[in-house]
Write a structure and sequence with these properties.
Blueprint: H1 9-21, H2 27-39, H3 44-53, H4 61-70, H5 76-88, H6 95-101, H7 107-119, H8 124-134, H9 146-150, H10 154-163, H11 175-183, H12 188-197, H13 204-213, H14 219-232, H15 238-241, H16 250-268, H17 273-278
């Protein structure tokens, strides 16, 4: 065994003293150091990734403050990440800031904020998706930002879906069918996602909008509207669905059939609603 020489002893003692005075960095401290470094990156893509990771820290005041601060970032993709993270953190306290984000000048930020508001059970989020599906403002008021205007531009809507990786749009079961449509310069998946989110909006106007969407030219939108109507659980909409049984697209026909069966059962046995709702909880966003 090697022993320390008399001359090296003072250095060894100094090293021990220094270690005690300046303890090693803990894993948690290292984690925060890494995140903060990421959020200070000049590259907006890296900043966005760091901000999005904050969504894994619900209930952490420090993470919440950083995410809310990122809502003011100069780059839209960072603001998108911030709005999404706040929804994932289930931050009810951030609802006012997310509502403000609905007037962002970038449509992708508006959609991200709307998705998080819906997840937080705030009805203002539904207004945006009603807007996307129908092309009209649910409140009847004029749009207050350039971002809102972009929601009416199919070309730009398709671009933002591709640019942001559609991570903020809950396609759920549409899967690769939706992605394929996006790559063909089709805005239908974005509108289909809007229809899906309106499934839990109690406003009768959303039910009417979904009924109208059954006649949409895109099969993806028609399927999404039928699924949303089924999940709303309103038997009064059965008559709106019936024509879809003759749709030229078999996916639409099958979905219409299942929706009619579901609503008919609810009409006959209202007590089924609780069990049906339990198996119809929203699926995770993403492709």
């Amino acid at each position: 065994m090697r022993t320390l020489s008399r001359g090296s002893l003072p250095l060894f003692v100094f090293a021990l003293a220094s270690s005690a005075a300046f303890p090693a960095e803990s894993p948690e401290q290292a984690g925060w150091k890494t995140l903060q470094a990421g959020m200070q990156e000049n590259n907006p893509e890296r900043r966005a990734r760091a901000v999005r990771a904050l969504g894994l820290l619900p209930g952490d005041p420090r993470a919440l403050g950083l995410a809310e601060h990122a809502l003011k970032d100069e780059k839209a993709k960072v603001r998108v990440a911030a709005a999404t993270a706040l929804g994932e953190m289930n931050s009810q306290a951030s609802i006012p800031k997310l509502r403000t984000a609905l007037f962002d000048n970038d449509a992708s930020v508006i959609l991200a904020a709307a998705a998080s508001l819906v997840s937080l059970k705030d009805k203002r989020g539904y207004e945006i998706y009603y807007d996307v599906l129908t092309g009209e403002r649910k409140t009847g008021k004029e749009r207050a930002s350039e971002g809102r205007k972009l929601l009416e531009d199919p070309k730009r809507m398709t671009e933002l879906g591709l640019e942001e990786g559609v991570g903020f749009i809950p396609f759920a079961g549409l899967g690769m069918t939706a992605f394929g449509a996006l790559t063909k310069n089709d805005v239908a998946p974005v509108r289909a996602a809007a229809a899906r989110l309106l499934s839990s909006d109690p406003d009768p106007r959303s039910g009417e909008a979904l009924g109208a969407a059954i006649g949409d030219k895109s099969a993806i939108v028609r399927v999404a509207a039928l699924e949303a109507i089924a999940k709303r659980g309103d038997p009064a909409l059965i008559s709106d669905i019936q024509p879809a049984l003759l749709d030229r697209d078999d996916f639409v026909r099958y979905t219409a059939a299942a929706a009619i069966i579901r609503l008919s059962r609810l009409e006959r046995e209202p007590g089924l609603r609780v069990s049906l709702d339990a198996v119809s909880r929203p699926r995770s966003p993403g492709l």
